[in-house]
Design brief:
9 strands; alpha+beta; ADP-ribosylation fold; single chain; 167 residues; seven-stranded antiparallel β-sheet
Length: 167
């Protein structure tokens, strides 16, 4: 699949991605929550137990993609082990994804920037916990729906993004 149409939407923004069913639960709850009621087996990077959970999860945070000033080619060369491409345009095992754009100004008080997240990860020597360096940011706590700018769904076999309601 050619993800170029998705990059046109994601470029420059702050985003969270999720499965469409989880997105419906987010809307009902009114927020993205750090520990949603889903099985560990359905979560990212949990097979080796809590000592290897993604770093943002250990902070009680929500993982966000910060595509501000992001250059795909340069990033891929500098961080070849980063798992960003597992999520873009969607998780292959899902065959679809909902991307939620987050209002950077509204979340600034609880946002750990991608650079600050890497620095904290290094300071804490939390190297067993995964991170997407200089791309992954974290929102600490429940991220309210009022901070959503827009959302769209991407599906396998399609070449366009389909807006979805956030209210």
């Amino acid at each position: 699949m050619n993800p170029d149409f998705v990059w046109l939407e994601l470029h420059g923004g702050l985003w969270h991605t999720t499965h469409p069913e989880r997105f419906r639960r987010i809307l009902v709850h009114g927020a993205i929550i750090p520990e949603p009621d889903i099985p560990e087996s359905d979560r990212w990077k949990t097979s080796n137990g809590p000592e290897c959970y993604p770093y943002v999860r250990t902070l009680g945070g929500i993982s966000l993609f910060d595509f501000d000033n992001f250059d795909l080619k340069t990033y891929s060369e500098q961080y070849p082990l980063s798992s960003w491409d597992y999520f873009v345009p969607y998780r292959k095992d899902w065959g679809c994804a909902v991307w939620i754009e987050i209002d950077r100004e509204r979340v600034a008080k609880h946002l750990v920037s991608a650079a600050a997240l890497v620095a904290r990860w290094h300071d804490e020597k939390a190297f067993r916990h995964t991170i997407m360096p200089y791309l992954e940011a974290a929102y600490i706590g429940e991220l309210p729906r009022t901070a959503f700018v827009r959302a769209f769904v991407v599906r396998e076999g399609e070449q366009s993004c389909h807006p979805v309601g956030i209210t």
